[in-house]
Amino acid sequence: MKNSLLLSASFVFLVGIFFSSLEVKAQDVKEKKVIQLSGIILNADSTDAVAGVNIYVPTKGRGTSSGRFGYFSMPVLAGDSVVFSFIGLKKQTFKVPDVMEDDKISLILTMQVDEIALAEIEVMPYPTEEEFKQAVIALNMVDPMAISRANMSPEMLLRWAESMPASGNENFRYFQQGQAQQNQDLYGPRTLRLLDPFAWGQFIRSIKRGDLKKKD
What we know:
Distance between the termini: 130 Å
CATH superfamily of the domain at 34-112: Carboxypeptidase-like, regulatory domain
Largest sheet: 4 strands, antiparallel
Number of helices: 6
CATH topology of the domain at 34-112: Immunoglobulin-like
Keywords: Carboxypeptidase, Hydrolase, Protease
Order of helices and strands: HEEEEEEEHHHHH
Helix content: 40-55%
Strand order of the largest sheet: 3-2-5-6
Protein name: Carboxypeptidase-like protein
Number of strands: 7
Organism: Algoriphagus ratkowskyi
Pfam family, one: CarbopepD_reg_2
CATH class of the domain at 34-112: Mainly Beta
GO molecular function, one term: carboxypeptidase activity
């Protein structure tokens, strides 16, 4: 009988403690004031707004993000720690005061660039440095000047000149010569080319150019 009374008393005592703690917690929550936190987030130079910054209270699981012009607004409780994070910028934390007379806070927050220095990475096309050295030693390098000298030889230049089409000036000159020859044929017989000094001049120039040589 005594044991049952003792267990009943213990149970009532524990229940009383449980409800007392709940009441204390409820009073603490009621005592915390709701604050409207708002502001603008700028870059380090305070020249441009930063959009898309994550703004949240880690312990409460609530938050928001800054808009297109860096503006944000969210309700918080007195004593909350608000975190501002963005990729490439240093994370910042704002502590809401525990006691406030006003029910709103306005911030102008500047976020600094978060510079991350990575270790140097050496990229090589061979598994080991020794194999890379052997490949460089065995490499057969062609002198670019030798290629240039071969392309600038008289034989190569003459071959290119023979294969090149006539320029605009040459086409116009041949057209003018054809027109003059047609006009001459209208008024008399064609002159003998062997007696034409201009024809002899063209013939001599063609010999100097090598036009009469047999092409390969």
